[in-house]
């Protein structure tokens, strides 16, 4: 009676555990849906489609594998062959070691000291190559991962720096929030996961095949024993039941890992943004706002990581129960079937000392147990690898999406996500263009002239700044560009340089190498002072010697910096060492080095004295450089021949610049402003006089 109660109690407990697992799974699914809705509201970005192991994942994986596919005769191919060879060798060594352990147990049962010492020595001898093979497996796996990562990284970098994709991904497309993480962490984890999964799947399949063949041969030797048919059928049933249970109760690890990687990327991007804007944040004491934003992003990452940990807790518990304890029990039963059903004569090599063959049966049991344990471990790795395959699906989706976006941006196919942006510019812009509309304008390369025909100026967000712009600029023109903030001055530079797409009309322009932009804050690249002058050329590409470079520095009155910093080959952190005016003049020295047809000057002399900037502009005109200048300084008007003026309401004018007339109007405007500025003071004094005279109002005083 007590035995029946125990059986009933165990079965009831098992049923209760299964029921609780199903209830917990439903609870987690509801929580995931609520978390995804909350996340969409916080980040304002539509959630990606569910990532799982399906045909789409296989297609994405094949596309990526073709990139680093090891060719015959390459180092990667040699590593792959070596890796597979070591995996096969490890399987045969495992079988041989299992037989040695059986021989050791047999010698102990027979109490044969000589055989025991001999088998121990053989075991230690075999342990040396086995240890080397185990280490070689890890070595080749790591080398393969590094090789795959290197090829994939080089391919990704080629795509990232092709056709200004690095600019278009961040400014014209919004599908990749953190391309820096995609190019570094995502590629690294993808390559490591793929190679590790290759080892995790290749060796178990080899183990299952070879161990199964070895066990079948052992059963065949027992001709009167049963189990040659029953054991394989029962084994397949147990494996299928385990796989089906784990498949049904397995969480969506692919989607969870992908979401965790995205949130980690957002947190890293927030830290990068703080580093880039540290000075502005410090000036405004904005550390509390930034801290709250960082903590908010970290809490989102923590919640996602905590969710994965909780899911792994219950899933690993179920996995361990089925593959460790349930399989162990089934394995003992499968071993017992041929041993207990054997009714032939006892097999022994010592008829006198062991007539019943106990030592032989013990040896066979030990070998069978070790082989079944190895086979069970192999099948366990195959089944449990589904979780890693699901994680690989998430990483594959991120890498494939990155490469796909790079390719589309290089071919001017952009996709933006609609967001609410506060715009405080002086222009009343209307959203008239769909964010994902294909740019249908034409860019035609010309010899010298810049010809714009009915081209609208449209921001990447779809805001129309100018509906239609038509003008012609020839190399003898020097164009002054004016207008209020946000009216399209810098946007015009981006348009003719090709950074922004042209949605309609035609743009005739010279080769982009004929343009050179000098912004208000010039970019200081890593390297020497020489590198700053010749940027973006390298030392191998430079065509100027030291005397010519010194002459260019003389043009911008910056020759003293060579002696101060220790020569042209001195390496410094130029962004922090040079003052604002020195950096602007160094940027202008680059213009004299490259001598472009058109120099795009965007407030590039705001920190330079008037006399020095006048010499620089005069020298540039003498060298035949056409100047397209955005400036608010009237002192530079005399160096330009034409005026392109935007009024801030979508209208524009392009005309010959009359400097004298414009200076006269400028002077009259300043006088009127000065007179109007004094009106409030006059009114205040008049009120004081009325009060002193005892008048109640200004009108009575009058």
Automatic annotation (TrEMBL):
<keyword id="KW-1133">Transmembrane helix</keyword>
<keyword id="KW-0547">Nucleotide-binding</keyword>
<keyword id="KW-0813">Transport</keyword>
<feature type="transmembrane region" description="Helical">
    <location>
        <begin position="227"/>
        <end position="246"/>
    </location>
</feature>
<feature type="transmembrane region" description="Helical">
    <location>
        <begin position="6"/>
        <end position="24"/>
    </location>
</feature>
<keyword id="KW-0378">Hydrolase</keyword>
<feature type="transmembrane region" description="Helical">
    <location>
        <begin position="117"/>
        <end position="137"/>
    </location>
</feature>
<dbReference type="InterPro" id="IPR017871">
    <property type="entry name" value="ABC_transporter-like_CS"/>
</dbReference>
<dbReference type="InterPro" id="IPR050835">
    <property type="entry name" value="ABC_transporter_sub-D"/>
</dbReference>
<feature type="transmembrane region" description="Helical">
    <location>
        <begin position="76"/>
        <end position="97"/>
    </location>
</feature>
<keyword id="KW-1278">Translocase</keyword>
<dbReference type="InterPro" id="IPR036640">
    <property type="entry name" value="ABC1_TM_sf"/>
</dbReference>
<feature type="domain" description="ABC transmembrane type-1">
    <location>
        <begin position="91"/>
        <end position="323"/>
    </location>
</feature>
<dbReference type="Pfam" id="PF06472">
    <property type="entry name" value="ABC_membrane_2"/>
</dbReference>
<dbReference type="GO" id="GO:0016887">
    <property type="term" value="F:ATP hydrolysis activity"/>
</dbReference>
<feature type="domain" description="ABC transporter">
    <location>
        <begin position="450"/>
        <end position="674"/>
    </location>
</feature>
<dbReference type="GO" id="GO:0005324">
    <property type="term" value="F:long-chain fatty acid transmembrane transporter activity"/>
</dbReference>
<dbReference type="GO" id="GO:0006635">
    <property type="term" value="P:fatty acid beta-oxidation"/>
</dbReference>
<dbReference type="GO" id="GO:0042760">
    <property type="term" value="P:very long-chain fatty acid catabolic process"/>
</dbReference>
<dbReference type="GO" id="GO:0005778">
    <property type="term" value="C:peroxisomal membrane"/>
</dbReference>
<dbReference type="GO" id="GO:0140359">
    <property type="term" value="F:ABC-type transporter activity"/>
</dbReference>
<dbReference type="Pfam" id="PF00005">
    <property type="entry name" value="ABC_tran"/>
</dbReference>
<dbReference type="InterPro" id="IPR003439">
    <property type="entry name" value="ABC_transporter-like_ATP-bd"/>
</dbReference>
<dbReference type="GO" id="GO:0015910">
    <property type="term" value="P:long-chain fatty acid import into peroxisome"/>
</dbReference>
<keyword id="KW-0067">ATP-binding</keyword>
<dbReference type="InterPro" id="IPR027417">
    <property type="entry name" value="P-loop_NTPase"/>
</dbReference>
<keyword id="KW-0576">Peroxisome</keyword>
<dbReference type="GO" id="GO:0005524">
    <property type="term" value="F:ATP binding"/>
</dbReference>
<dbReference type="InterPro" id="IPR011527">
    <property type="entry name" value="ABC1_TM_dom"/>
</dbReference>
<dbReference type="InterPro" id="IPR003593">
    <property type="entry name" value="AAA+_ATPase"/>
</dbReference>
<dbReference type="GO" id="GO:0007031">
    <property type="term" value="P:peroxisome organization"/>
</dbReference>
<comment type="similarity">
    <text>Belongs to the ABC transporter superfamily. ABCD family. Peroxisomal fatty acyl CoA transporter (TC 3.A.1.203) subfamily.</text>
</comment>
<keyword id="KW-0812">Transmembrane</keyword>
<keyword id="KW-0472">Membrane</keyword>
<protein>
    <recommendedName>
        <fullName>ATP-binding cassette sub-family D member 2</fullName>
    </recommendedName>
</protein>
């Amino acid at each position: 009676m007590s035995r029946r109660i125990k059986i009933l109690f165990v079965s009831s407990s098992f049923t209760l555990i299964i029921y609780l697992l199903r209830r917990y799974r439903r609870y987690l699914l509801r929580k995931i849906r609520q978390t995804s809705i909350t996340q969409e509201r916080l980040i304002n970005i539509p959630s990606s489609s569910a990532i799982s192991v399906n045909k789409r994942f296989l297609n994405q994986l094949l596309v990526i594998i073709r990139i680093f596919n090891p060719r015959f005769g390459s180092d990667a191919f040699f590593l792959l062959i070596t890796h597979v060879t070591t995996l096969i060798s490890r399987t045969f060594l495992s079988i041989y070691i299992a037989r040695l352990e059986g021989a050791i147990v047999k010698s102990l049962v027979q109490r044969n000291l000589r055989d025991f010492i001999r088998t121990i020595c053989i075991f230690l001898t075999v342990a040396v190559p086995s240890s080397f093979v185990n280490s070689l497996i890890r070595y080749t796996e790591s080398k393969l991962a590094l090789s795959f990562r290197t090829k994939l990284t080089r391919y990704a970098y080629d795509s990232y720096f092709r056709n200004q994709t690095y600019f278009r991904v961040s400014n014209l497309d919004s599908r990749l929030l953190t391309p820096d993480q995609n190019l570094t962490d995502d590629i690294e984890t993808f390559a490591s996961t793929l190679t590790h999964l290759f080892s995790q799947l290749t060796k178990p399949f080899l183990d299952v095949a070879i161990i199964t063949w070895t066990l079948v041969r052992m059963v065949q030797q027992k001709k009167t024993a049963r189990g040659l048919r029953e054991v394989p059928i029962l084994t397949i049933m147990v494996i299928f039941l385990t796989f089906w249970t784990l498949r049904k109760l397995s969480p969506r690890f692919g989607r969870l890992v992908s979401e965790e990687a995205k949130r980690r990327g957002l947190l890293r991007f927030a830290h990068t943004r703080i580093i880039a804007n540290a000075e502005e944040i410090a000036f405004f004491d904005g550390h509390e706002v930034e801290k709250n934003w960082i903590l908010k992003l970290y809490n989102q990452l923590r919640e996602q990581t905590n969710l994965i940990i909780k899911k792994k807790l219950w899933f690993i518990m179920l996995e361990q129960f089925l593959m460790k304890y349930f399989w162990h029990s089934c394995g003992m039963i499968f071993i017992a079937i041929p041993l207990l059903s054997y009714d032939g004569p006892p097999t022994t090599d010592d008829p006198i000392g062991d007539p019943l063959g106990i030592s032989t049966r013990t040896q066979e049991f030990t070998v069978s147990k070790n082989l079944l344990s190895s086979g069970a471990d192999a099948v366990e790795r195959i089944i449990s690898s589904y979780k890693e395959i699901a994680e690989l699906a998430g990483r594959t989706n991120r890498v494939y999406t990155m490469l796909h976006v790079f390719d589309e941006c290089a071919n001017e196919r952009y996709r933006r996500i609609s967001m609410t942006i506060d715009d405080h510019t002086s222009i009343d812009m209307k959203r008239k263009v769909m964010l994902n509309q294909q740019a249908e304008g034409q860019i035609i390369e010309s010899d010298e002239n810049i010809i714009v025909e009915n081209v609208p100026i449209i921001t990447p967000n779809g805001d129309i700044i100018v509906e239609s712009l038509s003008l012609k600029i020839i190399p003898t023109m020097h164009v002054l560009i004016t207008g209020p903030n946000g009216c399209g001055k810098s946007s015009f530079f981006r348009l003719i340089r090709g950074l922004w797409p042209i949605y309609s009309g035609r743009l005739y322009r010279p080769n982009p190498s004929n343009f050179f932009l000098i912004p208000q804050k010039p970019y200081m690249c890593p390297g020497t002072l020489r590198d700053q002058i010749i940027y973006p050329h390298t030392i191998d590409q430079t065509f100027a010697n030291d005397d010519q470079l010194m002459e260019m520095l003389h043009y911008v009155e910056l020759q003293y910096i060579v002696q101060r910093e220790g020569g042209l080959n001195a390496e410094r952190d130029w962004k922090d060492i040079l003052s604002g005016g020195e950096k602007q003049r160094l940027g202008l020295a680059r213009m004299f080095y490259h001598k472009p047809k058109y120099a795009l000057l965007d407030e590039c002399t705001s920190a330079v004295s008037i006399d020095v900037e006048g010499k620089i502009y005069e020298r540039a005109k003498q060298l035949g450089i056409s100047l397209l200048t955005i400036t608010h300084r009237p002192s530079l008007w005399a160096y330009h021949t034409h005026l392109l003026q935007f009024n801030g309401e979508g209208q524009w004018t392009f005309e010959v610049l009359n400097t004298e007339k414009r200076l006269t109007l400028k002077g009259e405007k300043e006088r009127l402003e000065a007179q109007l500025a004094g009106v409030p003071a006059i009114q205040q004094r008049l009120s004081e006089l009325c009060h002193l005279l005892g008048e109640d109002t200004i009108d009575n005083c009058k």
